[in-house]
Amino acid sequence: MIRNQFIKPSDARSWLSCVKRVWFDNFPPDGSVTKISEFDQLIIDQGLAHEEVVLDQLSKSHTVHRALSIAHTRQLMEEGAEIIYQARLENLEESLIGSPDFLVRHGTGEYQPADAKLARSDEKKEIQVQLGCYRLMLGSTLPGIVFLGTGEQTEIGDEAIPLVDQFITGMRNLLDSDDPPVVRYTHSKCKICPYYLICKPDFETRDEITLVYGVDSRNAPHLNEAGITTMQQLADTDAEAIPDVPYLKGFEKKKKAVLQAQSWLTGEVYKLKDFELPSGTWIHFDVEDNPFEISGQKHVYLWGFLKPDYGVDAFEYSWTDTMADDKSGWEQFLKLIDKYRDEYQDLVIAHYSAHEVTTIKQYAKRYDMSSHHTVEWLLGDTTPLYDLQKPIFDNLVLPLQGYGLKDVCKHKGLVNFQWEDEESGSQWSIVQFIRFLKEKDSVKREKLKKDILGYNRDDVLATHSLEEWLRRLGDFPQN
Ligand code: SF4
After folding, report:
1. Which of 43, 110, 203, 473 could pair with 208 in a Cys bridge, judged by C-beta atoms 3.0 to 4.6 Å apart?
2. Which numbered atom of ligand 1 lies nearest the CA of 200?
3. Is the CB of 190 under 6 A from ligand 1?
4. How many domains would you assign to the chain?
């Protein structure tokens, strides 16, 4: 069936993430409720605020006309309006319809499309597709303009044409199809997708092999060619019999993939080898940062610790309200490290994943403090920092589809640590922090801060519970 559905450049984000998602966006499935998450709403609000800032700036030096329709946009262009805000464009030949934030009249009389984007560079493909589509709709030979979140201005030109062609052809095929495309499960995308509950039964019916952690669209087609098409088949396969395929080479990796399928199907935990955690006095450490800081730099507003005796009152932290105090928050963090170092000679500072170490490196660079004695110790050969995710990846196979802190800790058959606020998470924390920044009422502000601190405290309590669980598991014989 040919539907004559228009392609919208704003579909680029979904299209680049998952073709089934963009099909659902255009043909919403029965009963689907695509509720926008608080985090996505935050991104939308931040984007609109950025657009307002750009509009204000342009209005200071130009006459800006707001377009009300496609016909009105055309009329304003014919009249030679300097800048057209919220322009509406259509290209019937390509079945394209779109709304660039601005059309800017060039000296030659041609119009350049322009968008305000929160991004810090124009490398994102969705930006290239959108600006490229607007250029196509305008028939413009001039590059599109991007007003970045950093305050800089950049341009998208002919280099985006191949990607735009791919988008239009791909979208045309999708929109002409009566059925959603068959796609593979991708944990990072599906777990946050509003259509997950609609897709889940199909994945389960097909016993989709990419439900197995470590098997994805890069290696699954090659496993299929080798006759391994389902999770159960992978679980039943002798790892020695699996050929080397991209991203799944060598016996150890293949054995892990087979055990991963078995673990997911049976709930069993597999210990690959005996292991021990470092001895010493452990302090648990976790940071919270704001990626939407207007300066373009990440602001770590909270450096949190859990020290002995690991009760809820053993939580300590360094907090700063704004980027203006960023350096003092970092220095306070270093002072806390010095204090622990004085108190405990055999210090182990445990964190989960590489994020904390990356953050310390970024701050050392930001404040030119790589030679500071505490920074040198933290990042040197005898570092007390210890990534608790490493012994898991190295020694265990768990019945999980992802190995994030919450995946491992919340699982009732594993660590079974539950956060006080079930809704909380890293995106939740950012949303609460932005609310904190905007809140004028001091009582509500304090409540928001208390909630964020409670979340960070639970994160470090969780890594402590994880440490205890790993120690118990380390004592068990391997299977
Ligand atoms: S749940 Fe996954 S497969 Fe389904 S639409 Fe969303 S991202 Fe695509």
Report:
1. 203
2. 1
3. yes
4. 3
